[in-house]
Predict the structure of BLOC-1-related complex subunit 7.
Amino acid sequence: MASASSTSARSLFVESKIRLADRVQVNINNIASLTRQIQRGSKSNEILMQAARTFAQQEQGLESTEANLKKLSLITTHLEFQLNAIDQSASKLEEVTEQVRAMQR
């Protein structure tokens, strides 16, 4: 009888091990499923993609702004040259006006 009860105990132990392993596997699968659901629910992938798109747009905007600043710098330089030319012409105009007045006397 001792061997029958030990065989029965061994069989019960093996069966318990198998059930425990099955339950652990089910729990792992449930955790994986829950993790996927949380990830889908959080929309983290979409948020990351939107952030990447926004970053790329910002880069294009910065490049455009830099190009516009260079153009403005060139325009400023040209305007300074023109202002100097106008100043020189104005000073010469005063001299010519004085010469005309002197000739009229």
Summary: The chain has a mean pLDDT of 87.
